[in-house]
């Protein structure tokens, strides 16, 4: 087998299957956002307490990206997918039986772990099969996360209204098993050794140009990821609750979330094409600057129509940020460690989402509004911009050549 397997017809087929799996596997992190108002009402919880299932989901999601990424490096993506699908299905079932919000939150820790296989591990796997179009391939796989959030809440909204959130979770358990496991068997093919050797040489050259070791760059990217995702989490996690507080109702909030995530899909595709020309680091900086601008627009506008517009702009602004981190990792770090390295950086961005989701709920409880929470997100986004500007000044990033 020759290096021509990269960017080949098989690569694009694998990309399609990977996106289908990701659209189902990622639903675990979005379902909890949609049921948040129902959980708050059922258990009589505060807004911060009602945010805890999401926070625990994201913590499990973070560690799952790291540990399942290592599993992909050692055992292949198929085994990781099958095991994680079983974990997710079991946690959906247990969550539907939870007698308190504390137990529900603990179960969501496991649900987040299983859900993680649909993000960082899949991104790391698909990055091996492309060179010329790695940016767009990674962006499309990352988009399956947003497609999941855009599609499933709308599909399940009628069941949520008529039968309750417990039935929603039981349905998701069944869907996860019957879709993810069969499709994962189509991904058993391994990356050719000659491709790994070629990619290792390219990454070594780029790492030398950056002037820092993979370990140092990994931790710097992780710190930047926390900053950008604390900012990102404010609208994504709390948009439904925000709309309820403004009197628009949860259905409007779910529509805005879907609009935001669909905009994120478009943003990720465009960012992937940009990254194939400019490289991951410059694309990451552009996305972070646009996110900060869009986040600021939530402050003066809280009318119904303006909120729809700002939600769409926010999605279009920030969607390409997280996959750009994965591209930087793949451009500068050893390919045989892709699962673990990408998993670590994804873990840090998810910690930022978890921290920001909880922090925004706490700020709301203290201040009685989301204004201070939006300002908090803008400040964290500024920290991210400072780090990225320093990295860009220090390094000379460039996209990989075929």
List the main descriptive attributes of the protein structure presented here:
mainly alpha; 402 residues; 17 helices
Write the layout of secondary structure elements.
Blueprint: H1 9-25, H2 28-43, H3 47-50, H4 52-75, H5 77-95, H6 101-115, H7 120-127, H8 134-163, H9 165-184, H10 193-210, H11 214-245, H12 250-278, H13 280-297, H14 304-318, H15 321-332, H16 338-367, H17 371-394
Helix pairs in contact: 1-8, 1-9, 2-4, 2-6, 2-8, 2-11, 4-5, 4-6, 4-7, 4-16, 5-6, 5-9, 7-8, 7-15, 7-16, 8-9, 8-12, 8-15, 11-12, 11-13, 11-15, 11-16, 11-17, 12-13, 12-14, 12-15, 13-14, 13-15, 13-17, 15-16, 16-17
Task: Write up what this structure looks like.
Helix content is 82%, strand content 0%. The chain is globular. It has helices at 9-25, 28-43, 47-50, 52-75, 77-95, 101-115, 120-127, 134-163, 165-184, 193-210, 214-245, 250-278, 280-297, 304-318, 321-332, 338-367, 371-394. By secondary structure, the protein is mostly helical. The chain is built from 17 helices and no strands.
> Could you tell me the mean pLDDT?
83
Instruction: Let me know the number of strands.
Output: 0
Q: Please state the CA-atom Rg, rounded to the nearest Å.
A: 20 Å
Report the sheet with the most strands, covering strand number, pairing sense and barrel closure: none
What count of helical segments does DSSP give? 17
Binned strand content: under 5%
Query: Percent of residues in helical segments?
Result: over 70%
For the terminal residues, how far apart are their CA atoms?
17 Å
Taking pLDDT < 50 over at least 5 consecutive residues as the criterion, the unreliable ranges are 397-402
- Principal-axes geometry comes out as globular
Which structural class is indicated by helix and strand composition? mainly alpha
Topology as a string of helices (H) and strands (E): HHHHHHHHHHHHHHHHH
